[in-house]
Amino acid sequence: MKNILLKFSSLLLIGAMILPTGAYASSSNDSISEKPEVEGEIVQAYRVTDNGMVELSKEEIQAYKALEETNNNAQMHTDFTFEDVASGNNEIITPNAINEYYWRYIQTTFKPAVPMTSLTKRISTYVYNETLDPAKRTISSSTSQTWSANFGLSFQHKKAVSTTLGGSWSKTTSFADVTESTVRARHMSWAEFTPIMDKSFGYLNEIYSFNGSVRTKKYTEIYTARELGNGQADGILVIKTAPY
User: Fold this and answer.
1) Strand runs (DSSP E) across the chain, as ranges?
2) Rounded to 5 degrees, what are φ and ψ at 179?
3) pLDDT interval class at 94 (50, 70, 90)
4) Where is the signal peptide (predicted)?
5) Alpha-carbon torsion, ordered 229, 233, 223, 100, to 10 deg
6) Is the pLDDT assigned to residue 89 strictly greater than 60?
7) What is the reported pLDDT for 174?
C-alpha cells in the first residue's frame, strides 16, 4: 500500500491535461467530451492496450509527451497554400476544360501511434467527495474518435484522402472504461482521454482533368484513429483531481 501511495504521489507532480469532475455525486448538467476548463493533478494514468489498461509511471507519461513533440518537429512545413501554375504546356485550354479538375492526396510522411494532446478531452462527469476523509469513487468514462485533419476538408478532399490511405471518414472508434479512484476530501475527480493516432503528412493536389497538371496544392495533415484488437480506441486515460 505504501508503494502505491508513493507512486500516486509522484504522478501528482505531473502537470497534465484536463478538467475537474465530480465524485460523491456526478453533476446532472455536466457536459462530457469537452476541452479542459481547469488544470488538475494526475492521480492515475493508463495506456489502452489489447490486453486491457496498463498503468503508466511518471516517466512513461513524459515519454509519450516527448514522442508527440518529436513527431510535431518532424512535420515538413507549417500550413500553407500556394498555386502551382502550369507551364510548358502546348495544349489548347478551353473554358470548360479549365474548370474541370479533381483532387488527389499525396502522402509524403507517415508517423504511426502518435499521442494527440491537442485532441485531449474530458470523457466523464465530475465525481465529488463531499466528506472530510478520502473516499473511493467509481468513474465511468466513454468517448469516440474519428479521422481529423489540420483544416476543414470538403467531401471531395475526404474522398481523395480515403482513396490514398484506405479506410473511411465515417468510421468511429470508441473507448469505454470504469475506473475506481480514491478521491481526497473536498475534491472532485474526472477522466480525460488522449487519442493515440496515426499521422499522415502530405499534399492535397487540385489537378486539371484535361492534362493532369497541378492547379493548386495544400499542405495537409491527416490523423486516423487506431482501433485495437479488443475493439477499444488506442489512447491514454488519465484520472485527475482538484479541489472544488
Assistant:
1) 41-49, 52-55, 81-83, 101-115, 121-122, 127-129, 135-145, 148-149, 173-183, 187-208, 214-225, 235-243
2) -120, 135
3) very low
4) 1-25
5) 80
6) no
7) 98
Query: Which single residue is written with the C-alpha cell 478520502?
Result: 134
Residues β-bridged to residue 204: 105, 218
Placement of cell 503508466 in the chain:
56
Q: What is the 3-state secondary structure (H, E, C) of 116-184?
A: CHHHCEECCCCEEECCCCCEEEEEEEEEEECCEECCCCCHHHHHHHHHHHCCCCCCCEEEEEEEEEEEC
C-alpha cell of residue 17? 491535461
Indicate the number of domains in the chain: 1
Amino acid identity, position 193:
F
For 135-178, what is each residue's pLDDT tens digit? 999 999 999 999 999 999 999 999 999 999 998 998 999 999 99
Q: Rounded CA gap, 123 and 233, in Å? A: 13
Q: Is residue 55 helix, strand or coil?
A: strand
The pLDDT score that the predictor gives to residue 97 is: 54
Give the contacts of 193 (CB within 8 A, at least 6 positions apart): 120, 121, 123, 141, 143, 175, 235, 236, 237, 238
List the domain range (segments joined by +) for residue 173: 2-243
Place of cell 474522398: 159
